[in-house]
Structure of 2-succinyl-5-enolpyruvyl-6-hydroxy-3-cyclohexene-1-carboxylate synthase:
Amino acid sequence: MTHQETMTDYILSLIEGFTAAGIKKAVISPGSRSTPVALLLHRDPRIDTQIAIDERSAAFFALGQAKVDLEPVLLVCTSGTAAANYYPAICEAKASQVPLVVLTTDRPPELRDVGAPQAMNQQDLYGKQVKGFTELSVPESTPNMLRYVQFQASQQTRLAIAAPKGPVHINIPLREPLLPDFSRQVPSVVQHMIEPKIDVTDAKEWSTYLAKKGMIVVGEERTLQEALQLLRLAEALGWPIIGDPLTNLANAGKTSSVYIRHADLIFSAGVSAEFQPEVVLRFGRLPVTKSVMQWLMNLPLSTEWLFVDEGQQWHDQLQCATVFLPYRVSDFVQASLSTATVSDTKWTTMWETRQAQAATMVEETAELQELNETSAVYAAHQRLANSAQLFVSNSNAIRLLDRYIQNKPNEAKVFGNRGVNGIDGITSTAVGVAMENPTTLITGDLAFFHDMNGLQLATSLQVPLTIVLLNNNGGGIFSFLSQRTLEKTDFDSLFATPTDLEFEQVAKLYQIPYHVPSDLDELNELLDQQSSGPRIIEVKGQFAEPVTLWETLVASFKAVVANE
Amino acid sequence: MTHQETMTDYILSLIEGFTAAGIKKAVISPGSRSTPVALLLHRDPRIDTQIAIDERSAAFFALGQAKVDLEPVLLVCTSGTAAANYYPAICEAKASQVPLVVLTTDRPPELRDVGAPQAMNQQDLYGKQVKGFTELSVPESTPNMLRYVQFQASQQTRLAIAAPKGPVHINIPLREPLLPDFSRQVPSVVQHMIEPKIDVTDAKEWSTYLAKKGMIVVGEERTLQEALQLLRLAEALGWPIIGDPLTNLANAGKTSSVYIRHADLIFSAGVSAEFQPEVVLRFGRLPVTKSVMQWLMNLPLSTEWLFVDEGQQWHDQLQCATVFLPYRVSDFVQASLSTATVSDTKWTTMWETRQAQAATMVEETAELQELNETSAVYAAHQRLANSAQLFVSNSNAIRLLDRYIQNKPNEAKVFGNRGVNGIDGITSTAVGVAMENPTTLITGDLAFFHDMNGLQLATSLQVPLTIVLLNNNGGGIFSFLSQRTLEKTDFDSLFATPTDLEFEQVAKLYQIPYHVPSDLDELNELLDQQSSGPRIIEVKGQFAEPVTLWETLVASFKAVVANE
């Protein structure tokens, strides 16, 4: 694909994003760098474009247009001081809550900070006077980059019109030559995404989607109440529901056959096209399960995506969402339940059967009857008392739990730090969580090492915290990742990172009871004991053991489903 | 008042703000600069304080506490790198939407950037990883500064718990000595503000307030529909309603006797204590009318303040609001109308009478029958056709309209740029507004001069824009302000700023028809003509004339109401 074709496809996708979110008017100030955007906007019959020479006037003019009906107006200018002239009107728009979408064009990264003419730093140019800023990539034309640019344009526009309304800023770097290719059409990967935005509180508006073959995908930490509501909705619709341990779907006090808790096993082994839904209903960010993400990413373009997000952040990593529903989970479920019926029992049964097969295979896994990292994680969740809490660290802990989790008939609450997945404050966070209820923490030795000071809090506050320490002397997660193919000398020093610490000494330092169970029975016995203060249960693991177990399991399941 | 007393009162007010908005837990890391905050928090029985030595652990511990019930937790540390150690947990809280209120203590301004120990720049320390940041003043103990600090603490906490939840940052500079005065009580000016936050969608929760003697105060631009709804609510409650011309209360298609459109005259002349309401119901920021603001500011502490703001920005310049209602105007009015009744007809009549007296006096003002700046503004509003639009510039234009505005039986829409009150883009904004409907712009010669390039847009787009240019050759607004008492040599060069331009030449340059009416009849005739393109009507004013007229009017009205 030529430079011009790539640039044109990218900008056409950008414009699709604007129109999808409600842009009908644009004010363009002529300039060189903005040429392709200006030309393609001007030729778009859906957009009323006006030309204003002086950028200060242009921005105030756009402000006036936006004031009348409070619909967003797009501003486009070239690079350099042109963009700075927008500033007075942007300040006014921020203070008086008028939606403006400011698109500044820019020189590409290689021309910045090298003394090239008209190249100034346009990142965050308007500081706190805009509600949002996004720096776009240099144009690329792979499907996911076209979706990306369309999504960014939509997302920023939606931000501009969400209460309180206001200005947003998008900066787009463009390379020469700047003339677009007028023969290009809007790329098909993007076209299907032009859907009306639905922002009414009436379930009728989305009930047509709920009458199809669908799937619910849940991410982020959910309260037990939300988890229960989501399970009820899934059952009422007969839709499979997927969500990792943090969603609490496995332990919200309800066992549901449509909860696909072994999604990682099922998708890692592969599913046929008949498992593809017509509609995906999403709540929050994606689950931690990577195979789910990859499968969702490759669903056909005809798939409809509904995204429920009270906070209107639209964190859609897949950038596929077409219908945006700004509601609380509870409000959405309540409204939906009034019309929900099972649309296709065959669809429901197919998923229930696959989940049941996976559960059988996991339960029959011999290694889960021995003591190892995997069985320790499995046991820590299974043996939670009613109303108890589980905190799972990142890296291996959350993944092992996601893979082997069982439904629990009683209520328990799972927590993690999956906002940015750090391993720097796991113990301290778990101590905070344990201030409310008895808590089990599953953590690895590296996360434990990072936050040993958190143990001082555990001791001084005497919180009821049981730390299950998976000690494989280093970064076990990397044996799951691509780094494991490295030479041993590189791998061990950079990734395996053994600390060679005797954690029993740490326990002594903080006067915390310390246990090393010799078999699974002993671990289970310890887990069943109530503890009023902190304690550490060390499970000695072997570096690559969980990987081998998992790969064997996936291969076996692949064989089972292939034989059907 | 001693330093210690002042500092203590200030910090007690800060803590009141936190508790009013829902803070029940605090995590404190010991340090010197944070001493008074730590001690006063620790002694507050409403707050559960925990001590955590290492700030990185402390922040993750607070994150864990906040995760369990998603209620905000307060973090307090000393100045310097202590604050930087909070950063990892703040990043996690932002991404996983957990409410944290981070209070960093700081050295006072005079110790910054001079090489003092442990003094680093703590402003905006967490960049975009927090939802909000506020830099507090050095402690002061005047009533409005105590309200200020209480309001800031509440506002930031409310921001942390609004969807999407997340961390906020407050930086407080403190001077030595740092030991508080434990004998101090919470200042009374602040105490009355501790009110439960009401955030339910049930009118019953606020209907007790609506049964009292109240007043509605409206600010910011309102749609005609909102203005109409607000007038209906005021009539149903029998409450006076105050709002400047931008609120569109005067021209929403309804004439209402409870609309106090001459508020500036009434409050400038003075009102007795019997005019004080028990409840003030506010929508948006304050009206432009300064005398209203000053009167509101001095209402008794017992006054209840309700604040309706869908965008939850709580822009309460008076910092008096006690009840925060995060609803759309339309939803709030609809819910309120179901229970609204007139509580006190005497209260209603008293206000109606005062407004009628003011209207009579304004109508009988002889100067409004002659051509001058004041009568031109009055006429431009009165002679708007149905569905026409009026754009008022800042400085004199908006104030004169606010003072002399009459009810209009037909619908018209008033606009302005009152977000930050600039005079840099008035003409261009009005051109944008005129893209929708015929528009009259009232502007002064200085605003006109700033944005002459906007005329090029008006001409090239041939918008139906009538510009009423109040030309007093300089900054007429300053003759209303305190600068007028300056020596003439200072005043003329710095504030009067005559441009000595012949605006007829400007009209010629842009080929815009130009008129200079010689009397009011001629102006009215021009205003009644429909124009399909732009035109300029210049009204030559005299610098101090509007001031004299206004001061005479206020004095006369004072005499009328004094005689009652």
